[in-house]
Design a protein that fits this description.
With 443 residues, the protein is α/β, with parallel strands linked by helices. The protein contains 15 helices and eleven strands. Strands 6-5-8-9 form a four-stranded parallel sheet. Helix 3 packs across helix 5, helix 4 packs across helix 10 and helix 12 packs across helix 13. The structure holds iron/sulfur cluster (2 copies). Keywords: 4Fe-4S, Iron, Iron-sulfur, Metal-binding.
Amino acid sequence: MQKYFHSVKLDEQKCKGCTNCIKHCPTEAIRVREGKARIIEERCIDCGECIRVCPNQAKLALTDGLEKLQGYDYKIALPAPSFYGQFKPEVSPSSVLGALLEIGFDDIFEVPVAAEAVSRAISAHLQQEHPRPSISSACPAVVRLMQVRFPALLEHLVPMESPMEIAGRLARERAVREKGLPPEKIGVFFITPCPAKVTAVKQPFGGSSSVDGAISMTEIYGRVLRRLEGRPVRTIDPQSSGLGIGWGSAGGENEAVKTGSLLAVDGIHSVIGVLEEIERGGLDDIDYLEAQACTGGCIGGPLVPQNPFVVRVRMRNLVKKHGSRSKAEFPGNLDFYRLQAPIRPRPVLKLADDVELALTRLEEAEKIAAELPGLDCGSCGSPSCRALAEDIVQGYAQRSYCIFELRQRLQILAAEMVELSHKPPPAMGREWKQSREGGGHNG
Ligand code: SF4
Ligand code: SF4
């Protein structure tokens, strides 16, 4: 079986088995067994929903630390578009970029610059023949969701690399060209708003990643802020346009793509609703779907430090201020942006590899599900009665995990015990029965 890297992990010590997370997971990847949550590796898409909803901070995102920079001679930071909106309006993007150079990086390549370039590539793609709607491949959690739950829709994905990947590639090429360094001596680090991007770096969809590590935005934000509060820092003139920066919040990608009829959806459960609609054959009047797993877009990622509603306003102002054309040059050749390999399904929701066995299990699971109470209470540790039924037929759970079933069985058992207690042992005669009924002997 294929091994999967995951940036979302469980801290078993902190987990209280409260079952809060199991019902929010979009791929039903969590079970609670023996009082602790368990993540089913093959199903998890690293969307970070469980990080948000756990009241005990028992789910966490593994990211790279700044110490990883030490392994390289030349270190390049890739700030995500959502990073720009984390700072108060009086802090200019030029001083934020300057501060990045003072916390350990030698160079910066702005991901919004790459986002603008990718927008143009998508726009050119949409003018060619394409399945309707074409779906953005920029959010790795949405792409993995499609691999797991909507494999039939994978052909709708725009076959373009994400702005992060393009930024990484352009940054390394520039450093090789300008500094004369061998590529392996250059470390390229994305400042990430979410765990899904960490997974995209560690286990890319196809080929290899142009990025060497992903560091949490909250960690970098704290360091940059401390640097800005201290002595004055260098400033770097941002190259990004408002179109590229806008990618950081929901709807911004469409603003930059600007081709045909466009739909934007954010929040993983809303994304599922729209993908279901496409699966049913709807939405063929839409050319392009921007879909982001986090509510509000990347500014709503689990690793951003600031309130997404506040950031949304700041982003809007930055978009206006930075105009509609980047100062940077980027390749015009469409092939430069194409995905290195097609994105394949991850068939993990089937009940068995053998088709005949899978069908038998399906029938059995349907029968069990119909007999379960249908309350989807989660007390069994599975996210729904249907999921428990599937767990049972796969041998991962028992019917007695359902507390209603258990209670019913106990009631039947109790009734049987009462009935049994009234039955005479075979060796006893009529007198025993009379004594039990209160008749007894009267002398
Ligand atoms: S929400 Fe999930 S991970 Fe958090 S304590 Fe409850 S069961 Fe454990
Ligand atoms: S990260 Fe998302 S897919 Fe993975 S277990 Fe948490 S909620 Fe489920």
